Amino acid sequence: MSARLFSLCFLILFTLSGLLAGCGASSQQAAPAPAAAPSGESAPAAEPAKEQARTVKHEMGETEITGTPERIVVLDFSFADALATLGVQPVGLADDNDPNLIVPEVKEKIGTYTSVGSRYEPNIELLSSLNPDLIIADLNKHKAVYDKLKQIAPTIVLNDHQADYGQMLKNYTVIAEAVNKADAGKKRLEEHNAKLAEVKAKLPQGDAQLKVLPAVVNPTGFFAHSNASYAGSLLEYLGMLDAAKSQEAYPKTNLEQLVALNPDVLFLMKTEDKTIVDEWKNNPLWNQIKAVKDGKVFEVSRNKWALSRGLIGSELSAQEAVALLTGK
Amino acid sequence: MGRTTKAAILSVCGIVLLILGLVGSIAVGWTDMGAVDAVTALIDSSASQQHLIVSTLRLPRALLAAIIGAGLAVAGAIMQAMTGNPLASPQTFGVNAGASLAVVAAIVLLPELPVPYYALMAFAGAVLGGLAVFAMGSAGGMTPVKLALAGTAVHLFLSSLTEAFILFHQHSTDQVLFWLAGSLDGADWSDIRRVLPWAAAGLLLSFLMARSISIMKMGEDVARNLGQHVARVRAMCGLLVIVLAGSGVAVAGPIGFVGLMVPHLVRYAVGSQTRLYLPLTALAGALLLVLADILSRFIAYPYESPVGIVTALLGAPFFLYLVSKERRAA
Hints:
The complex is a heterodimer of chains A (328) and B (330). Chain A has 328 residues and is an alpha/beta fold.
């Protein structure tokens, strides 16, 4: 009897915890964007003159897009970053139900939008109800649902999840073309290059270049962002050297390896307040790392440095890097 | 040659191999050093970098692999004896799934929790998962089949909840996946301090109960006729599995297949009727996990891969072999 009672309690407990997990997700739903809906619907009607169709090449083939898309749904943060630079506001965004993951500089530009849920499992039905006329998706996360997406609206698929800085710039050009702002995109890209050149000029180059290591740290592990990652390749573009050389973008690294990599500077992106680094600080080896000895361990925002893979995100992180390194 | 003599010889060989394995484990890593260098660096009392690497990182990691391997293997042997099911292992007792769920839930729901508490959460989850299986399996009289079914049901139920947590909170849990595969790479002395009391007590108690455990294998009726207090022994066994496997999962994540494979290998070598069966199982489990941990460092060298990948690569074919053997026997 008591055993049966226990089983029952157990079942109830875990069903509740399951509900909790679900509620946690839905209660964070970003506010829907009623304001955007009517204007979006009326806009195409106001311009009866159809513009010429153009073909946009992307990772899953070619997609024909006509005119200027007005109701765009994007399935990753980086695409929202790109739209923000072009003055375009998406009607829908997969934001993992947490608008705080978007860097403020992007969030204020994209205005209100409807969250279509997790970037990994976007809500296709909700997405479809937004009546999009363009969907921008990621190769890694959304390849499997491409067929469904393209039935809803013209869809372009870009390699974002695995992208390094160079690939991100290529993606940007494709997005600009898809939203019919190729010229504006080109102009913005020139501005971007100028901004980064300015940052680069402030940093030591050549033999004096700094050996840096950006890394995401959570309670269970230290994940170096290697030269193949977005953050690592951006820092290398700025003339620094990523201490972790790997084909893999985010190799898991232990303290022994970190000591061997011995970076001059550490940029730590914490996912939680308490991380594995707090444990490592108790080990005398931690103090033998050059970055620690020189007091060059910096905490930076993961949202800015790793999630907002776009022009705005990279400019912000480049500027932050130079500010931290030059002490200004 | 008698079984006992053979078992004694194998024990000595096992101990020698384990010591060699431990030396190998402290010699292999990114910082290049040979076996002799590593041992010298360990004894060396100056605080050189090599000494610190060996004494604060590699040695605890090697020892942790041995302790957890021994615990998982013995937990598996007890499970197999208790359920009469050769495919039973801590994984099928809800222990791994309970621990995994607790850790993932803690990361999502209690992000402020200090790191050492994750092990505590995992242990609590392991206990809860194990007790749930035990309670369901024993409702209205425990039978091996009921226990196996309850184990599978609870395992699947808890795993699906874990999946749900991961899906709904991808951005905070995506890097939990490494832990979920089972890994030893972050081991330090505090992990040893956390796991050793439980593992040592569990192993010692198992060895003392070896006779009762091996009688359980002959079936409930025989055991009862031999004067066993079946229910009490079963409860003890359940507790031992939870403690042995749960403490391991708590610090290293759910490392699979060790508890499944090792008891069989030892049984082939010496049979399960010798007094040394459980100690040999512990020894072989320790050896297997120490070696698997060394191999795991080469998968994505110089970076780390979860040791659970290696044990799964070794264990999955073994599991299929056991299944096909069962079918032939039936």
